[in-house]
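Here is the promised in-class demo. Please do not try to memorize the tokens; focus on the logic of going from shape to residues.
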């Protein structure tokens, strides 16, 4: 059950991250922010974030 709750939390966190990024992408470009040209950069960040979140969920119960 604990693993299921952690998985649901990670799905929610990932959905929110991706949704907000896509929603604000045009505004970030218009503001002149320098965005990565390859999607691997965002995926690496998301993967590292997931590893950190799973570590926190695992060790804190």
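The designed amino acids, position by position:
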């Amino acid at each position: 059950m604990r693993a299921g709750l952690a998985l649901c939390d990670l799905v929610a966190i990932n959905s929110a991250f991706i949704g907000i990024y896509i929603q604000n992408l045009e505004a970030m470009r218009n503001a002149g922010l320098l965005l990565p040209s390859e999607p691997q950069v965002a995926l690496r960040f998301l993967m590292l974030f997931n590893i950190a979140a799973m570590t926190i969920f695992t060790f804190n119960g």
